[in-house]
Amino acid sequence: MIKRPIINPLFLALSLLISAPSMAAAWCSAPHTEPLVSLRNALKKNLLPESRAVERVHTEGTLPHQGIRDQSIEARKDWPLMRDLALLWQQQHQPGDLAALSRLLNDWGTRYQPSFDPIDETDLDAYIDAYAMTRDALPVPVRNTAQRFIRQLGEGYLSRMEHDFKPGDGRWINNWNSHRVKLVTLAAVALDDPALLARARTQFMTQLGRNLRSDGSTVDVEQRDALHYVVYDLEPLTRAALAAHLRGQNWLELKGPTGVSVANALDWLAPYAKGDKTHQEFVHSSVKFDYQRRDAGEAGFSGVWNAQQAASLYAMATLLEPKYAAVSQRLYPVGGWMAACWGK
Question: In whole angstroms, what is the distance from residue 224 CA to residue 289 CA?
Fold first, then answer.
């Protein structure tokens, strides 16, 4: 994580995002020079002459070196690079960046076969971001490929939420479903499809009712006894709310069937994020895999919750509600693409 003083939580974007007309709001605000340098250095380190595109990735539910986990982690290095290239193109207009981005968008859009496992695919939000920031500059064949792929993701996840819900399966109410909601909302806004966005809003509301308790806590903290998973649930919902805001809709305060909103959940977590309260992670988790990861030495699956895990969450929330700046300022400044997209 970059810890430079000028990359503070996202106040520049607050003025740009909230004051801009809904249909004209930029997907990202204009970044400052220092985050761009960081992105350029990351590209030099990680961008290959050919894409890493594969037909399938899978890391969900696996430990290091199991199955295709290692290969998937390597392949997915392309995903954030697409967003980095789009940010650099947006500000510097270097032809090589657009050419590299076009290659990645095209290769992944034609080769990858979505599994509709939201844990494996949640980071494809970077693909959608990259398309949305560069749509008008992309070669027409690449633009068409990206649109088809994004629609395949959006329609596919929506269809599954609308028709495949299983009441006894926690993956339809916990963080898994929050990630589904994020992807369909980003797809709808990027494609500028009001009908798709209306369906996404319905699923957002449904998730609020299924996942959030009356006190603002989430079903994930009941299942996992971990604030790690509260953040993992609220980040995609907040990201969906940011996308919906570009279409003039306030989803942060939107109350689900039980009368609870994402804002209520952010308020519930805030004392822990500020350090006023602490929490021992995964002590009473009901999920065996959490203990397997702890025993395998994966970081974060024991001990006191590290509040810095909520830095990006409250940085995003501040864009929609300034009161969360007080929490965000207590956490480390965000770096990387978030600083480049929204940093002050």
Answer: 10
- Considering the domain delimited by 11-342, tell me its CATH architecture: Alpha/alpha barrel (1.50)
| Mean of pLDDT values over 91-118 | 97
Reported confidence tier of residue 91, pLDDT bands at 50, 70, 90: confident
**CA–CA separation, 209 and 197 (whole Å):** 19
CA angle 191/193/195 to nearest 5° reads 150
Torsion, Cα 70 148 28 88, to 10 degrees, reads 60
Model pLDDT, residue 207: 97
| Helices marked H in the chain | 11-19, 33-46, 69-75, 78-92, 95-111, 118-121, 125-134, 140-163, 175-190, 194-211, 219-224, 227-245, 262-274, 288-295, 311-320, 325-328, 336-342
Percent of the chain at pLDDT > 70 equals: 88
- Closest to 313 in 3D by CA, of 233, 251, 243: 233
pLDDT at 251: 97
Q: Which two tokens stand for residue 239?
A: 């990201």
Q: How far apart are CA 261 and CA 267, in angstroms?
A: 10
